[in-house]
Known about the structure:
two-stranded antiparallel sheet
Amino acid sequence: MTGFARRAGHGASLTLLALLTATDVALAQNAPQPAPKPEPAPVVHRLNWTYPRFRLWEYIAAATVTTTGYFLQYGIEGDFRDSSWDNGILWDDAVRSALVSQSREGRERAHALGDYFWYIPQYFPVVDSIVTPLATDKLNFDVAFQLTLLNWQAQGMSFLLTRIAHRTVGRARPSLQECDTNPNYDGACDPTAVGRTASFISGHTSMSMSGATLTCAHHQALPLYGGNAADVAICVVSLAAATTNGVLRIIADKHWSTDVLAGMAVGAATGYGMPWLLHYRYGRLEPVGAAFLPKNTAIIPLVSDETFGLGLAGLF
């Protein structure tokens, strides 16, 4: 009986344990479950990069261009090439006569003011390309990075082409024409002054126009300011600043007009041409400010014997 009682006791214990376990499971199943943590919502950016990304060969090419440009700037001893081209061509003399300030004070003021119109349009796209996507589009590092790479590529090329011209052409600044009769006409009259033969091409103009046209290209390809009149305005203001810079360089007697025009051409080719050729032409490129126009419309130039202006055309 004792063994039987012991076995019976064990059996009762096991039965009670099973009942308690089953009760715990039932209570656990019926107890309210904590709500699952919601999945974090994906970040949706208003700016999306739909163009080819910066490729490996572009990194290599841009680094090579930058290195070569800095070598031409700092790696070669001595000043730029001796002057082999001293005079104006085409309309240079007429433009110089009309625009150059007659006082040294006026020329120096134009030179100083021109520096502002050099730095601002040149560096604005660098700041704009970083700050606008990060500050107004939920830290959009992707777009900021791609725009920065395009700025590096274009402005590096503009700098290289400018320095190649300075090292190989050797055009004397127009102010040197007055040095024989007035040694105090300009600081360049000093034979030891740096850059006396770096007139072609206008580096102030090439770099400022490169920055201005980069601004236009970026705001045409992406609605950085919303795709409205603000994107148009910043392009127009940047181009006006770069153009003003070129005019001030002539007023300061630092460059011939053909130097300035050549600088504008180089700046536009690198600032607008390179991003478009390598990236933006592969996407859907909208006219600058397309968002504030009615759908299927465009602003077109109107030129005839009796008309000169702009018109609004569209499909309805």
